[in-house]
Specification:
Strand content: 15-25%
Strand order of the largest sheet: 11-12-10-13-14-9-15
CATH topology of one domain: Rossmann fold
Bound molecules: adenosine-5'-diphosphate, magnesium ion
Number of helices: 28
Shape: globular
Number of strands: 21
Length: 718
C-alpha cells in the first residue's frame, strides 16, 4: 500500500529542525533565507497538495473526517536495544545515537546506519534512500527508529525503519499515532494536518437521533470520529487496533447502513419502473420439460418455482441464481427463457466469454429449436453481414431467444419485445454492463432479470453486496455424480502425471491440462501454454492434443473445442479460458499446473469442468514447492472439499471480500471499515434500520447517504 512507503515517509518528515531547540533555530535561519522562494511557490504548493488529496478522494471536510486511520503505531514507549533483541520479528521503537553511517555496495547500493544506546546497537538498512538522508543521518545524531527487528549478518538490524531525529529526553507521545492510507507524495504529516483542520471546521450533526443510537447501543458520530483520529491516552489500545472499539463500531455501522440504504433504494427505484408480467407457463415450457432426458432435481424445482412466481409480477425480477458448478443452472435458465417466449416476449442470455456463450447457444438451441423456437447468436467477432442479420432478427422480434456476449448490450442492438434478461457468471460483468441490457425493454419498462453465478457468494456477502437482489440457491447436485477426487502433487512428479494422463485416455476418458496463471504477462502465459502443448504432444504421440487459449480467433477456438467435444482430441491443453461453463461430460481428469497461483474459487471453477458425467473423476493440483503456510492450507482446502460454498467461505477468509468479489464488482462501493466476517451482527442491525428509515424517515436517509456516499451513489444506481 502506498502509505506503507516508509521511505517516502521518512524523507518527508519535518527536517531535523522540527524536533530540537538548537536545530530549530538553524532551520529558522534557513527558512528566512529561502523565504522569497517559499512565498512565491506557496500557493502553487497548496493547490498541488489539494490536487493530490483529491486524488485520494479527499475534497470536502467530511471526506477528511471519514478518512480514518488504517492502523495505529505505538510510539509511546522506547525499548532498549538489548530488550528489543529478544523481541525479534515484532515492531519496536528504539532510540540511539548514530555511531556509523555509510553507503555500502553489498550486494546493492544501500545506506547502512548503526545506532547505539547503553545496552547495545542496531543496524538500520535503507535500500532506497535520498541524498538528503545521507546528510541527515550523520554520526552523532540521535534518532528514534521504529520497525521490525531482525537478526542479520551484522547482528540486530531493521530494514527501512521509520525514524525521526530527536534530542535526548525528547518527550514520547502519550497516545497512539494514527497511520493513514496515503499515496505517493502525500506525507502522513500533511494528511494529519489536513484532517485536523477539517475537524475544526465541521458543523457536527448526527444523522441518527439520540434515541435511535441508544436503542442500537451506538455512540455519537462526532465522538467516534474524534476518538479514531486522536485516541486519548487511556483508550483500550487493543480494541482500537483491532477495530473493536465502540468508535469503530459506530463507523462500521454507518458505513453498512449507507450501503444497505443505497442498494435498497436502487431496488425500490427499479421496482417502480414496472415490467411486463409473464404469467403463462405454456406449451413451450411444458414440451421442453417433457423432452428432457432426466427430471429436475428438487433444488432445481424449488428455484424454478421462485423464478416463475417472480415472472408473474408486474415489476422486474431481480434474482441471483446461485448454484455450485455443475448443479444445473443452465436448464433452469432455459426454462425461464421458455416462459418468456410462451408469453410472446423475447429472452436474451449474456455470457462473459465467447466459449461460454457458444456452449450455451449450442446446448439451448439443441433443446429449444426442435420445439420451434427461433434463436439468434450475437458476439463481437461476427462479420458485419452476420451481425446485421442477427440485429435484423432481434429488432423484428423474429428471434425469440438471443444468446451472446456483451455485444448484446451495444446500442445498435434493438429488441422488439424483450421480456427477460439472463446474465451468466454475473460477477464477471460490471454492474453497469449488466444493467445496460436491462434498459433494452419497451419504453418505461424494465425486463425481468436473472443473474447466475457459480462462484457461490457466502450469505453475509450476498446480504451486503446484493441487498437489492433476491437470491435463489440450487443446493443439490444432479444424481449419479461421483465426487471428484483431488490430489495435490509436487511438480517434480510430472512424468508420473503424464503417464496417468495417458492411461486415462487409453480408457476412453478425456483430459484437461490447465496451464499456469501468469498474471503479469499475457504473452508469457501464452508462451507457456504453447510450450506445454508442444511438450505433451511430443510425450504422447499416440493421442490428439488440442490447445485453446484467449488469443485464438473465435473460429479457431470453436474448432478446437468442437474437436474435444466430439472426442476427436483426447487431451485439451488450456489456459483459464475454460474456467467457466465448459461442459464436456466425458472429460474426467484435470491437471492444473502451478495450482498455488490460483484463487480457491477459480480452482473450484476449473475443477468443475470434470465430474460432469458418470465416470469417477480426478483433479491433480500440481504445485511448485516449497509452499508457504497459506498456500499449503489453500491446496488442502481444495483436496478436502468439493463444496463450492464452503470453499468460497474459506477463500473469502483468506483473501478478503475485495479480492474475492473482484474490483469491478465491488468498485467504490467496497466497504472500508466493516469486516464481513466479524461484523455480521452489525450488518443485520443496519439492514433492519435501513428498512425502517426507507419507509418512514426520508430526511435521515438523504442525510446519511449524502454523508457516506456523496456522489458515489451513482455507481450503485446504474
Ligand atoms: P452449471 O450449474 O455449472 O451451469 P449445467 O447447467 O452446465 O451446470 O449442468 C451440468 C450438467 O448437468 C449438464 O450436463 C446438464 O445437462 C446436467 N444436468 C442438469 N440438470 C440435471 C438433472 N436434473 N439431472 C441430470 N443431469 C442434469
Ligand atoms: Mg453454467
Amino acid at each position: 500500500m502506498a502509505a506503507e512507503d516508509q521511505n517516502a515517509c521518512a524523507e518527508t518528515l519535518p527536517p531535523p529542525a522540527a524536533a530540537t531547540g538548537s536545530s530549530r533555530k538553524k532551520a529558522a535561519v534557513k527558512t528566512a533565507a529561502n523565504q522569497h522562494d517559499t512565498k512565491s511557490t506557496a500557493k502553487n504548493n497548496t493547490s498541488k497538495a489539494s490536487e493530490k488529496l483529491a486524488r485520494l478522494g479527499l475534497r470536502k471536510d467530511m471526506d477528511f473526517a471519514l478518512h480514518l486511520p488504517m492502523r495505529y503505531e505505538d510510539e509511546t514507549v522506547v525499548t532498549s536495544m538489548h530488550d528489543a533483541g529478544f523481541r525479534g520479528g515484532s515492531n519496536v521503537q528504539i532510540e540511539g545515537v548514530i555511531t556509523e553511517s555509510d553507503v555500502q555496495y553489498r550486494p546493492r547500493r544501500q545506506l547502512v546506519v548503526t545506532i547505539a544506546d547503553d545496552s547495545g546497537q542496531v543496524v538500520l538498512r535503507f535500500l532506497n534512500f535520498y541524498g538528503s538522508q545521507i546528510k541527515q543521518l550523520a554520526v552523532g545524531i540521535r534518532i528514534r527508529a521504529r520497525g521490525e527487528l531482525r537478526h542479520g549478518f551484522l547482528g540486530a538490524e531493521m530494514v527501512h525503519p521509520t525514524y525521526k531525529i530527536v534530542v535526548e529526553g525528547a518527550p514520547l507521545p502519550t497516545v497512539l499515532t494514527p497511520v493513514y492510507h496515503s499515496a505517493e507524495g502525500v506525507p502522513q504529516a500533511l494528511l494529519r494536518k489536513a484532517i485536523s483542520n477539517a475537524l475544526l471546521r465541521i458543523q457536527w450533526r448526527d444523522t441518527l437521533s439520540a434515541s435511535r443510537l441508544a436503542a442500537l447501543g451506538l455512540q455519537s458520530f462526532e465522538a467516534s470520529v474524534r476518538t479514531l483520529h486522536n485516541p486519548p491516552p487511556d483508550i483500550d489500545q487493543h480494541s482500537l487496533i483491532e477495530r473493536e472499539h465502540p468508535a469503530w463500531e459506530r463507523m462500521k455501522f454507518d458505513e453498512l447502513l449507507a450501503q444497505q440504504l443505497s442498494l435498497k433504494r436502487a431496488q425500490i427505484t427499479r421496482r417502480s419502473k414496472g415490467a411486463s408480467a409473464l404469467p403463462i407457463v405454456g406449451e413451450l415450457s411444458n414440451a421442453f420439460l417433457l423432452n428432457l432426458p432426466f427430471s429436475l432435481t428438487g433444488a432445481q424445482e424449488k428455484v424454478l418455482a421462485e423464478i416463475r412466481a417472480d415472472l408473474r409480477e408486474q415489476f422486474p425480477m431481480q434474482r441471483l441464481l446461485q448454484g455450485d458448478v455443475g448443479s444445473g443452472k443452465t436448464i433452469v435458465a432455459a426454462l425461464a427463457a421458455a416462459q418468456a417466449i410462451d408469453n410472446g416476449f423475447q429472452a436474451a442470455m449474456m455470457a462473459p466469454t465467447e466459449i461460454l456463450a457458444e456452449q450455451h447457444f449450442k446446448k439451448i438451441a439443441t433443446w429449444l429449436e426442435p420445439l420451434g423456437v427461433k434463436t439468434a447468436w450475437l458476439t463481437g467477432s461476427l462479420k458485419k453481414k452476420e451481425k446485421d442479420l442477427a440485429n435484423a432478427l432481434i429488432s423484428s422480434g423474429e428471434a425469440q431467444l438471443v444468446i451472446g456476449t456483451h455485444a448484446l448490450i451495444q446500442d445498435s442492438v434493438q429488441f422488439k419485445k424483450l421480456g427477460l434478461v439472463i446474465v451468466d457468471e454475473q460477477h464477471r460483468f460490471g454492474v453497469s454492463q449488466r444493467l445496460n441490457l436491462a434498459n433494452k425493454a419497451e419504453a418505461g419498462k424494465v425486463p425481468h432479470q436473472l443473474m447466475m453465478s457459480a462462484t457461490p457468494i457466502p450469505r453475509t456477502l450476498a446480504m451486503t453486496y446484493f441487498a437489492d437482489l433476491e437470491v435463489s440457491v440450487i443446493d443439490e447436485l444432479p444424481p449419479g455424480r461421483t465426487p471428484i477426487v483431488t490430489r495435490v502433487i509436487d511438480q517434480n512428479r510430472r512424468e508420473e502425471v503424464i503417464a496417468r494422463v495417458h492411461a486415462a485416455t487409453q480408457e476412453g476418458k478425456q483430459v484437461y491440462w490447465v496451464c499456469p496463471l501468469i498474471e503479469e504477462s499475457e504473452t508469457l502465459q501464452l508462451q507457456t501454454a504453447t510450450d506445454t502443448h508442444a511438450m505433451l504432444a511430443a510425450a504422447l504421440p499416440d493421442i490428439q492434443v488440442g490447445l485453446v487459449h484467449g488469443r485464438l480467433k473465435p473460429a479457431e477456438k470453436q474448432a478446437v473445442m468442437e474437436d474435444f467435444i466430439q472426442h476427436r482430441s483426447q487431451l485439451l491443453v488450456a489456459t483459464t479460458v475454460i474456467e467457466v461453463g465448459v461442459d464436456v461430460p466425458n472429460a474426467s481428469l484435470m491437471v492444473i499446473e502451478h495450482a498455488e497461483r490460483f484463487g480457491l474459487s477459480q480452482l473450484h471453477q476449473l475443477r468443475g469442468r470434470v465430474g460432469r458425467g458418470a465416470a469417477a473423476s480426478a483433479c491433480l493440483l500440481l504445485y511448485q514447492g516449497p509452499l508457504g503456510g497459506t498456500a499449503r492450507q489453500r491446496l488442502a482446502i481444495m483436496r478436502e472439499s468439493n463444496d463450492g460454498f464452503e470453499i468460497a467461505r474459506k477463500d473469502l477468509e483468506l483473501r478478503g471480500p475485495g479480492e474475492f468479489l473482484g474490483a469491478r464488482q465491488s468498485g467504490e462501493a467496497m466497504l472500508r471499515f466493516a469486516n464481513l466476517d466479524t461484523d455480521q451482527w452489525l450488518v443485520e442491525k443496519a439492514r433492519n434500520l435501513a428498512c425502517e428509515l426507507l419507509s418512514n424517515d426520508p430526511l435521515t436517509v438523504a442525510a446519511h447517504l449524502e454523508r457516506w456516499l456523496g456522489n458515489r451513489e451513482e455507481f450503485l444506481r446504474v
